[in-house]
Write a structure and sequence with these properties.
The protein is an alpha/beta fold. It folds into two domains: about 90 residues, Urease, subunit C, domain 1 (Roll); about 300 residues, TIM Barrel (Alpha-Beta Barrel), CATH 3.20.20. About 30% of the residues lie in helices and about 25% in strands. It has 13 helices and 19 strands. The strands form three sheets. Strands 1, 2, 3, 4, 5, 16, 17, 18 and 19 form a nine-stranded mixed sheet that branches. It has an eight-stranded parallel sheet with strand order 6-7-8-9-10-13-14-15. A two-stranded parallel ribbon has the order 11-12. A hairpin with a 2-residue loop joins β2 and β3. The longest helix has 18 residues. The radius of gyration is 21 Å and the shape is globular. The two termini are about 20 Å apart.
Length: about 425
């Protein structure tokens, strides 16, 4: 059975394509792109007024499985991804047990085969137990499919240990994804340190903690030649340091979350735990620097850092709540609202940051619409306005900083390997 996506505007930056036309899907692959397709017996999806793009890729999520299934699991997390128009995610290693050896990695791969409704790549830990003391089974995990290494959620404090990890990862051709916050400065803080935190009487996490960590690890990248990827950059100074490092030829990249592009620390004045995350949401000056970092190519990708917690964990006083939010279902809409409708960026550039570049960074298939390749496709209604309600999301977490906020733009069709997994907001698996 053929599926034809008709009358959509095809956005395919990897091929320089921005044109109205049809896409034909057959046997899980793209059979034709562009022009007019006439197959009376095919299933038809009318995409008139919509953007048709390569499947979106979120290179930084926490699916929480194994061991933390009360927060999220592979099934619910990938359903949330499908609802958000995302066809591939990369899940982090800070599970219980930690993905620091082949046995755990293979167990996760098995669970993915059983339950995932979008594609899932696995990021292995840098260190055993995320303790920063002993290297994980990096070589064996790379051989068995780990796409990168990260102790995300933990900063690797020991510089010499980080150097050795980067040397090893470099030999394996894998990047290190760096949670860059010096915890000697940040561990006691609950939000961005600044005027708002002072007025609220809340201990802050200074941006200097992020800047110090970024600076150190850019220097280590220069020393080792290893690709360092700075996770969830949030400070203006860090963006500028990465910009300079790229100019100096250092092998580095970075990403920004949709929520750091949307919110500032002013939103935290009511002490709502749904805004509590690490690194914290910072100032308007930082937010503008993040947008500029995207516009000039300093920042390489937009992702979610989807890190859900149980409602019982988040529904507590602000300082007691864990860091992290659910973001898979709001990322695209938030990004379109801020960047596309805010006239900062074309849809073509947004697709680069949410599909093309993540595929390149992770060294995985995707990011392009091409005949003969897997039909992983996202169809987007850029003008659909909708109000976020946590209890209507597919993730297990009901807490979202977007609660009650009206966003503009939404995925209306998600296709993985030629199969429709989400249509008009309803996940079909």
């Amino acid at each position: 059975m053929k599926l034809v996506i008709k009358n959509g505007t095809i956005i395919n930056p990897a091929k320089g394509q921005h044109e109205k036309g049809d896409i034909v899907i057959e046997n899980g692959k793209i059979a034709a792109i562009g022009g007019h397709a006439d197959f009376p017996d095919a299933e038809i999806f009318d995409a008139n007024g919509y953007f048709v793009t390569p499947g979106l890729i979120d290179m930084h999520v926490h699916l929480r499985e194994p061991g933390q299934e009360a927060k999220e699991d592979i099934l619910t997390g990938t359903r949330a991804a499908a609802a958000g128009g995302i066809t591939r995610v990369a899940t982090m290693a800070n599970t219980n047990p930690v993905i620091d050896n082949v046995a755990v990695l293979k167990g996760v791969k098995h669970r993915i085969r059983e339950d995932a409704i979008v594609k899932v790549s696995i990021i292995g830990a840098i260190s055993k137990g995320l303790e920063g003391k002993q290297l994980s089974e990096m070589g064996d995990m790379a051989f068995n499919g780990a796409v990168a290494f990260s102790d995300d959620g933990h900063y690797v404090e020991n510089a010499n240990f980080m150097r050795r990890a980067m040397e090893y990862a470099g030999q394996l051709g894998k990047m290190i994804i760096d949670h860059a916050e010096d915890m000697t400065m940040c561990s006691q803080g609950f939000m961005n340190e600044g005027n708002v935190s002072y007025k609220m009487g809340v201990t802050g996490r200074p941006s200097a903690g992020e800047n110090i960590a970024v600076s150190r690890d850019l220097l280590l990248s220069e020393l080792t030649g290893c690709h360092i990827h700075i996770a969830h950059v949030s400070s203006a100074k860090a963006v500028e340091m990465i910009r300079q490092a790229k100019g100096a030829g250092i092998h580095c990249s970075t990403e920004v979350t949709a929520q750091h592009l949307y919110f500032t620390d002013e939103y935290l004045k009511n002490y709502e735990s749904s805004f509590k995350m690490a690194p914290p949401i910072r100032t308007e000056d930082d937010r503008q620097a993040l947008i500029e970092g995207l516009k000039d190519g300093t920042i390489d990708a937009i992702m979610t850092d989807h890190a859900p917690h149980t409602n019982e964990e988040k529904d507590v006083p602000f300082n007691c709540a864990p860091n992290g939010i659910a973001g898979l279902e709001t990322s695209l809409a938030s990004t379109l609202t801020v960047l596309y409708h805010g006239k900062h960026m074309t849809i073509d550039k947004i697709v680069e940051y949410m599909s093309v570049n993540p595929a390149k960074l992770l060294q995985v298939p995707g990011g392009v619409l091409e005949v003969g390749e897997d039909a992983d496709i996202t169809v987007i209604d850029p003008n659909k306005e909708w109000t976020v309600k946590g209890n209507e999301l597919y993730t297990k977490s009901l807490f979202t900083p977007y609660e009650g906020i009206t966003l503009k733009g939404k995925a209306v069709l998600t296709i993985v390997d030629g199969n429709i997994v989400m249509k008009e907001g309803k996940v079909l698996k």
